[in-house]
Protein: Enoyl-CoA hydratase
Organism: Saccharopolyspora shandongensis
Amino acid sequence: MGITSDLRDDGIRVVTVDYPPVNALPVRGWFDLAAALDEAGADLDTHVVVLRAEGKGFNAGVDIKEMQHTDGFDALIGANRGCHAAFKAVYECAVPVIAAVNGFCLGGGVGLVGNADTIVASEDAYFGVPEVDRGALGAATHLARLVPPHLLRTLYFTGRNIPATDLVGHGSVLEVVPRDRLDEAALAVAAEIAAKDTRVIRMAKEAINGIDPVDVNRSYRFEQGFTMELNLAGVADEHRDRFAGTEKARSE
């Protein structure tokens, strides 16, 4: 359980997230994922990264129950900083990152894949940002990299999910395959990249990041500022209590 990182002989590094039951990452998990991606990029033997997950779904965001069972704001601040570090590590990884998405990809999961370079998904995969239902904001920055502007607003305000098959049409998901072929499909794309001169690929990654029209690291931190306002107003706590089932415990 946790974050594992394995370098294959062909230069493909496979980073796996495994936090049962739903891959909702605790604070430590986000920072560990960031560290694994930073280390992958710093290793010149790594030509490309495949980011994948074990279990029923790719990622269910932050561990809200951890947040609600921690006194004060330490867990909230930790989750904010941890998510920022992990999303940034995906985006700034010195080599391309291929996200292999199975099942649900929600909240923080969208933050990860939205900053990835290529997305391959299973037939059962779907994406969503339910932040407004949790009294929080965030990951609109990354959802905006998956869908057009008006669809972004609709998905964000309603909390609706969108299936991976729809994202193929928008060009953000490369392909959708049966669940038992997901790893194979992601590794196939990774092998194409790994076979290139890694010195050129590393410069290409830096160059493409340099021409992005939006500074994703800064825009996400801007979003997080509104989350902190909702927390200070007590709004976010009400929503998280309902989600985590801690209302009764807090009122006694």
User: Anything to note?
Assistant: Confidence is low (pLDDT under 50) at residues 247-252. Residues 2-180+198-251 form a domain with the 2-enoyl-CoA Hydratase; Chain A, domain 1 fold (CATH 3.90.226.10). The longest helix spans residues 74-92. The chain is about 50% helix and 15% strand.
